[in-house]
Each structure stands twice: as structure tokens, then as C-alpha cells.
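Q: For a teaching handout, I want to show students what a protein-ligand complex looks like in C-alpha cell form. Below are the inputs, and the small molecule is 4'-deoxy-4'-aminopyridoxal-5'-phosphate. Please produce the holo structure.
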Amino acid sequence: MYDIEKVREDFPILKRVVNGKPLAYLDNAATSQKPRKVLDALTGYYEQHNANVKRGVHRLSEEATAAYEEAREKVARFLGAPDARGLIFTRGTTESINLVAYAWGRKLLREGDEVVLTETEHHSNLVPWQLAAQVTGAKLRFIPIREDGTLDMDEAERLIGPRTKLVGCVHASNVLATVNQVERLAEMAHEAGALMLVDGAQSAPHLPVDVGRLGCDFFAASGHKMLGPTGVGVLWGRPEVLEEMDPFLGGGEMIREVHLDHSTWNDIPYKFEAGTMNVAQAVGLGAASDYLEELGMQNVREHEKRIGEYAYHRLSEVEDITIYGPEENRTGVVSFTLPDIHPHDLAQLLDEDGIAIRSGHHCCQPLMRRLGVPATARASFYLYNTEEEVDRLVEAVEKAREFFGAFAS
Ligand code: PMP
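A: Here is the structure, written as C-alpha cells, with 4'-deoxy-4'-aminopyridoxal-5'-phosphate included.
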């Protein structure tokens, strides 16, 4: 039994009052709040163990190194990674995908090769590939969406072929709430001899993820969206593929031997972790993985599905509203627009009632163009949100409609 009140007790920030109202935090796709367990892991690390990792033989350095490597094991287990050697700490999804685009893309892409993405990608799974394509002469192709916001898998079949070297796809859309068939795309990619990259920024926090079952070669995620601190995320890569890649950043720790005119590289994952890493944040992310595992990702998914469906159903009763994305198999993201109300104005008005939602293009400008809107409002739910918060959202949206309607008429 999922005890929502007990879960909420774990998050100190949820007690905040904003504009005289209890905070309803519905901006979880942007970043999540942090449970006490993660906050304690951060302060505990700094109060008891802080030292630079790997370089020291003194007690604290050994403890810090052990804590960092334990965090790697925890996150690897959380993602179903068979081998923690494939788990690289980064700053987040953006850096993880850039790592692949530089260290794999720039080394191995050639003129005439193709990278197949989708028109729903976040800029962080698009711009790094544009940069890699400019340098290598590779071409980008895009799988379109159907009217309901799901990927056109027939077009995917057509686009993925002998020239494809990598398929990259967002697992769960941060705008449409679609859960994409990345397993099927991975099969298509592999049949064509290509690799599969999954942007898991919106799936790792919300769905049970098993990189082995997904069949992907790369999986990127951000710690701050899955109850962890900012400044840390992960790239999981199949060890055989990581071995083949060039380093991303050069410097301390990523080397085996350095000479004045050349160097050799450390083993994976250290080859990709140059300089002093975000050690405390990695430890915090390890604690976040523990917290999510203790709650059970299936329970988290079921709770969010319930809240997401309730929000979809309640919001669809608002007159003239447009909600984007499919009706079924959604995550807890609801993007919508109302005629005569700019999403920014709506978000500002909701803030007066203590309700935090996001408005804008959500770093998906090509998708906004495809949907024919400059921006949407987006409420995004997580494991601590309640039906009562959905009711407050709907009430505030109705109030905003009346308020702006008065000006429009
Ligand atoms: N991909 C998706 C689908 C996202 O929602 C986000 C964050 N909004 C990112 C990538 C980028 O994540 P980060 O800013 O943590 O690197």
C-alpha cells in the first residue's frame, strides 16, 4: 500500500507556504524535490568523509572513494546495469549525450552516415548531434509523430537502414508524456548494425528501467530529476562500446600514463571521468536510488499513472483546453494550452495560489513547431503529488480562464 502522507513527510520542502498557500509543486519534469535521506547523505558526506577521491591513501580519501564507488554500484543496480564499469558519472543528461556525440560520434561517424532521432527530442538530444554532424558530414534524420503524439513506427522502419549508425530517442517525452517504444527501436537499430541511445531523463525517475531489457547501448539520466542533487547524472554505456570510444575530457584521473607528447587512457569508466568529480552529489544520487528502490519503482509508476490520469481527465473537462500527447500509456506530465491565455501568464497566475507549473517551449522548439504553438503550460507530477493538488490546479486554471476571458470578450 502506497502511503502518500508518509512519503510527503520525507520531503521537508513540501511544507513550504507560497503566497500564503501550501506549496503545490507540479514542476517535477524540470527538477524534483529531495527527500531527507538524500539531504542527510550530502551533509553526512561533508561532515564525516569529505576528501578528494582516488588520489589519497589517508583514511578520509579511502572513505570518500568507497562512498563514491558504492554510489556507482547503487545507480548501476537501479538501472539494471549488469556491470558498474559501464556507469559513468556526468553532470546530467545533457553532458551524458554530449559525451556520446563527442567521444563516439566524432570518432566514428563519417560522411554519408546517418543518425536517426525523433521530432520530439529535447534540445539536449538534438544539438549535440547537429554539432557532431557539422564536423563529420553525417546526416540527421527524424522519425515523425502521429497526431496523437506517438512515434510513427512505420516511418521509423523506413528511416532506419544500412546508413544508420545511431538511433537516439527520448524514452518518455517531457512535453507529450508519451512512453516511446525504445525496445522496438533498439531492435531496429541493431538489425541495421547501428547503436541505440535512450534519453532517460524523464523515465529513470518515473518508470522501472532495466537497460538490459531495453536493449540499448547508451542510457542517459539526470540525478536532479530523480530525487538526487543537481550537478550529477549518469551515462550508462555497453562496456564494449565504451572501450572503443575516445575520451571526452582530458585531465587528471582519466589517464594511465602521461608523457609530454602523448598519453594513454585509464580503464572505463574512469577514462570518462576527468578531474575531480561531483563526489558528494554522486553519493546523494546513490541515496536517491536507494530511496526509490525502497518505495519500489512499480509503486511509483502506479501512483503517478493514477495521478496523471486523474489530472488528464479533470483538465480535459476545462472548456476549450487542448491537451497534448496520447490518451493512454502516459507519464505524469500534462501539457496544455488555452485560447487567449499565454502559458506564461497562466503560470504566473497559478503561482499566486502557490501552484508551481512550467510554461514555455520546454527545450523542445522543433516539437512546439510541429504542434503549432509557441509554448505550452505543463504540470508534471511525481511520487509525492496528491489528487487534492490536481483539484487545486484545475480550480486555478478555471479561475484563470474566467479572469482572462473577461479581457478577451
Ligand atoms: N532530456 C529530457 C527529456 C529532459 O526532460 C531534460 C530536462 N528537461 C533533459 C534531457 C536535460 O536534462 P539536464 O538539464 O538535467 O541535463
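A: Two things your students might notice: The longest strand covers residues 164-170. The domain at 39-294 is CATH 3.40.640.10 (Aspartate Aminotransferase; domain 2).
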